[in-house]
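User: Round two. Same drill as before: sequence, then structure, for each protein.

Assistant: Same drill it is. First protein:
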Amino acid sequence: MPTGRLLPARHRPMNHGLDLLHRADLPALIARWHREVSPSELKAGYESLLAAADAAGCARWLLDLRRREDLTEPSVNAWFGQVFAPTLRGRYPEAVRLAFLVSPLRAGQPVTAMISADSTDCQIATFIDEAAAHNWLSNR
């Protein structure tokens, strides 16, 4: 089975409850939150994810939220939709694809901010099955 490359220390967030792994064979950047995080930690985690994606030149991200309870923190959703997501427009040769992996219990809960097609070119989907998320990410 192919293995991923743990990102260099400068791209691994500290104290954000987050692991980042670049899988060039998929290709995807995998971000796994391992605990509940504060809004400031979550924002810092997304900034670390962006730095790692830039370093790898990877526009396909699997965001594993299964261990997080609160997926709809309003201030983070507003920041994501109004500040973070617009920076993704045209950043990579292809549109950024965000696959949110959630637990079955959270599958009905919205996980992302409303993102305007005018402000970003992200493609977003939510999954409860990791294989399905990887399959979606690998399709062009």
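Second protein:
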Amino acid sequence: MIDLLSFSLCLLAFNGFALAKPAHFKTVFKTRPSEQQSNLLLIVAWISILLSLVFCVVAQQGYGALLFCGFMSLSVLIIMLFYNFIDSLVKPFSILNMLLIGASGLLLVINAL
């Protein structure tokens, strides 16, 4: 379950990095982001990707760094496909990803108890 959370956080991070760019933000929301929105997206993206790295390394020790590299590569590929070919589904995809992060995090907390 922690691997799913790590992958979802990585996906959220690269989606945030993409949305921080005015061109991608305008494609999705039909308006340009303000400076504050762009900075907030970058901060959330960096926190998300660092959390993903920490979860991977804590859960898998030495193998976690390799797993994290794979998660990053797959996340970039998925984000690239969405923004280049099916940009109308970026919003529902983002919502689904955030729900997945919440559900997997909740399941991790429940399993820890």
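Helices lie at 2-19, 22-29, 35-60, 62-85, 90-112.

User: Perfect.
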